[in-house]
Amino acid sequence: MYLLPRVNLELRSRLLELKPGIRSVSLQNPRLRGDQISFNFTAEVNGDPARYELDGRIEGDAIAGSAALSGKRIRGRLDWNAKRIAGGWNQVQNRKALAMIFGTAARKTSHIAAKFCGVFLVTGFVSAPAFTQDYGDTPYVPTPQNVVDKMLEVAQVGPKDYVIDLGSGDGRMVITAAKKYGARGFGVDLDKRLVAMGNRLAARAGVADRAKFYARDLYETDVSRATVLTIYLLPEVNLMVRPRLLAMLKPGTRIVSHDYDMGEWTPDLSLILDAPDKPVGRDHRSKVFYWIMPATVSGKWRWQLPVEGKPLNFELALHQNFQNIEGTVEVDGRKVAIEDAKLAGTQIGFSVVVNDNGASLRYQFSGRIVNNAIEGQAQIMRDQAGRQLAWNATRTELWEPAHASLKPPQLPQMPN
Hints:
Blueprint: H1 5-16, E1 24-26, E2 28-33, E3 36-45, E4 48-59, E5 62-70, E6 75-86, H2 89-95, E7 98-106, E8 119-125, H3 145-154, E9 162-166, H4 172-181, E10 184-189, H5 192-204, E11 211-215, E12 228-231, H6 235-248, E13 254-258, E14 269-274, E15 285-292, E16 299-307, E17 310-321, E18 324-331, E19 334-337, E20 339-344, E21 347-356, E22 359-370, E23 373-382, E24 385-398
Parallel strand pairs: 1-8, 9-10, 9-12, 10-11, 12-13
Antiparallel strand pairs: 2-3, 3-4, 4-5, 5-6, 6-7, 7-8, 13-15, 14-15, 16-17, 16-24, 17-18, 18-19, 20-21, 21-22, 22-23, 23-24
């Protein structure tokens, strides 16, 4: 078996009721496309390890298809007919439970004139929306309402925001953002039934004009309009979608993820909270991760400041990895490292300490990045005295940030 922890616990009592000798085997390479299902597993029959490759068509609570057997003494193809004996389709999809199928098969081959009958308990994780169509999909597990509220609170959602939810399920994230904060937005999901449910619930909540849901692949969704993006995806899916977010989202867009982070992209904020209504996990707790999409600031920047009656030239060389920045400033031919560097969306700040005739001269810069320009304030501190000047910098060289060269995750290939 390869199930979620909570499902393992729910299943345990059922397994203990099995007759001695009943074997539980794990599905391998399960695939579901529309009403077509296929998977394989290995089990012993009279001491002979045999591989079973099954494919068929689902009709209600039954599957009809064929099974290919390959073992030392048993080999051939037979008809496969299965009947579900536990859990209806709605229960399977909504609770992410398991499909328990007892299958019986009969075979006759030319080289072995015998009839084989076997009974197996097959447990497998069946996910929605649209089940697991391919690697990179995400099973539908609803985010508890208190976690939804916390995610929107962390993102500081307001009436001017446009919220996009990838893998929107029943729509509660965008509906809450619209109803509680006056925001607008949409959600996408592969499961058309969940999409229809989301639109019905939005209408019932009176926010159908501000919260809409579409049956759409998240990898093909244009998210450039978002000021807030919310996700509850599997860890590898986060990594798969990360390059798209970095390429499409505007600097300053807030991203909030339930439970899973973004790998090398460290969050600006993370927290853990109780989630008593969470349908998966043993401890009923949830993690929330928050990022602000950083502007691209890597490269060389130049500006002048009037210091002691004469213009002083500055050249900043910035290196960037996501929101983490470091670099050096050359001031009148002297190069020093920047300190206290911070990048939050389009807001940048750092300081430089220069030795000036035995005394420390501290420059503190803060400003807003607009394309290849920075507009802000520079504060010059000598001893206890200080003064503030306008700061306008221009980028003279654009460098690719370090995170742009990260390789995409190496994911296993699913068989056709």
